[in-house]
Amino acid sequence: MAKNGAPSMQCPRSPDDVDLFGPGAPERWYAAYDVLHQQAPVMCLRGEGLTPDKDAFILSKHEDISRVVKDWERFPPTLSLLVKQIQTTGALAQEMPGLDAMIISICSLRPTQELWRAHRQELTDPWVGPGAGRHEDMITGHVDHLIDRWIDEGDLDFVRQFARSLPQRTMASVLGFPMEDIPQLETWGNAQVMAYVHGCGHNNKLTEEQTREKSELLDGFGHYVRQKTKEKRADPKDDMISFLTQVHYEALDRKLTDDEINGVVYAMLIGGLETTQYALAEQAQLICERPGLFQKLKQDRSLIRIFIEEGMRLRSPTQGLSTRITSQDEIFQGVEVPAGSSLHLRWAAANIDPDEFEDAKELKLDRKAVTRHLAFSAGLRVCPGAGLSRLEQTIAWNRLLDRLDDIAYGEDNDFLHQPGIMLGTLKLNLTFTKA
Fold it and tell me: Is the pTM of this model over 0.85?
């Protein structure tokens, strides 16, 4: 992935060289995916399953990952096993130490496939899924507000001044939080994804100190959300939290509790910030690396949708997650995977699988079926906020194309990425010409 003066790092040449999780790994990911596809499409991580006697396996082929995510019974989500374990104790989830708000709400609102589907249809789709189009004017306003801040400067840090700020402002508006609270919301959002950035190994494990720090920070977030929930129960507005205080959840034939609303909001925040930020930053780089692409998109806006999907396919915001378990013995690519094994689904590798995509590493604006990538996963557990993220990206590029004549790389870019499992460019200096 090294480019434009980025420091060169030794690229893996064999499976023994592949480390997707260690220091500096993000700079070698895409070279590693070539090795995995060619030499180890199913890689075993000995003793790294849920218990020391179980193994984990990295899946990198599109056909394997697509099969796994679409079959809940055969490849149950790791979280569903935790929920079952909690339910067998007979204790209330909210009284068990160490559980975050999202897991607590899953135990009561969506512990089964049927309730997971109902949760999406009744509670989240109207706001961040297929119903996200209601936010078009709001998002456009945020995009223009951010562009107005730097349009006369000629250069900017695209990550700090645009890509990070847009989903922060959008998510605050959707949920009903004031703009002045965004700095504090960013701190809480960072705490929520701490494991995915600073955690170790494919399971993203935090140290005891990190776990304690995360818990303390999120206690503050829980208090904040409960206060906002109380205010909106008394005086509902046109926002998602107000909606959650008033809605009758048909699947359970009742209204939601404050703890359940807290859990839904937790899930919205954890999923609503990262994907869009990283997608926009990588798309800007794809444009800078391809002379004439900005003008092509500017002249034919029908290509924006394909460009966005191709961008997320080529440089997936979330590179991989260990989210599934085998419920029975399986065989992937000729490799035996025993029952009870953890599966690390490497979305980013699947999205450039040459057996699935013609010219897999090329950005093709005439590619057919462009949404078959797995950047948002697939099946029942597809990212609930995919609709909102796509809308943000579409509006962002339409307005950037309206208000700029070109963009190019600026000075002092090292193109390095944050640690963890998300493709997060740390900074991206650009120059541009105002339209």
Answer: yes
Query: Vertex 428, ends 398 and 357: CA angle to 5°?
Result: 65
Flag whether pLDDT at 7 surpasses 60: no
Mean pLDDT for the stretch of residues 414-430: 96
In the numeric block, the tokens 């504090």 are attached to 184
Does 5 score more than 90 pLDDT? Answer: no
State the amino acid at position 267 in one-letter form.
A
| CA-to-CA dists, residue 389 to 133, 339, 376, angstroms | 11, 35, 10
CATH classification of 15-434, choosing from 3.40.50.2300, 1.10.630.10, 1.10.1530.10, 1.10.3720.10? Answer: 1.10.630.10
Half-sphere exposure at residue 383, Cβ-oriented, CA atoms within 13 angstroms? 25
Q: Is the pLDDT of residue 240 over 70?
A: yes
Tokens for 103? 């897991």
Residue 1 in this model has a pLDDT that exceeds 80: no
Average pLDDT rounded to a whole number, residues 357-362? 98
pLDDT of residue 6: 40
Q: Are 279 and 311 in contact (CB under 8 A)?
A: yes
Gap between the Cα atoms of 291 and 365, Å rounded:
14
Q: How confident is the model at residue 267 (pLDDT cuts 50, 70, 90)?
A: very high
Q: For CA atoms 271, 277, 283, 286, give the dihedral sign.
A: negative
Q: Are 262 and 226 in contact (CB under 8 A)?
A: yes
In three state form, how does the secondary structure of the chain look?
Answer: CCCCCCCCCCCCCCHHHCCCCCCCHHHHHHHHHHHHHHHCCEEEECCCCCCCCCCEEEECCHHHHHHHHCCCCCCCEHHHHHHHHHHHHCCCHHHCCCCCHHHHHHHHHCCCHHHHHHHHHHHHHHHHCHHHHHHHHHHHHHHHHHHHHHCCCCEEEHHHHHHCHHHHHHHHHHHCCCHHHHHHHHHHHHHHCHHHHHCECCCCECCHHHHHHHHHHHHHHHHHHHHHHHHHHHCCCCCHHHHHHHCEECCCCEECCHHHHHHHHHHHHHHHCHHHHHHHHHHHHHHHCCCCHHHHHHHCHHHHHHHHHHHHHHCCCECCEEEEECCCCEEECCEEECCCCEEEECHHHHCCCCCCCCCCCCCCCCCCCHHHCCECECHHHCCCCHHHHHHHHHHHHHHHHHHEEEEEECCCCCCCECCCCECCECCCEEEEEEC
Residues with Cβ within 8 Å of residue 208, at least 6 apart in sequence? none
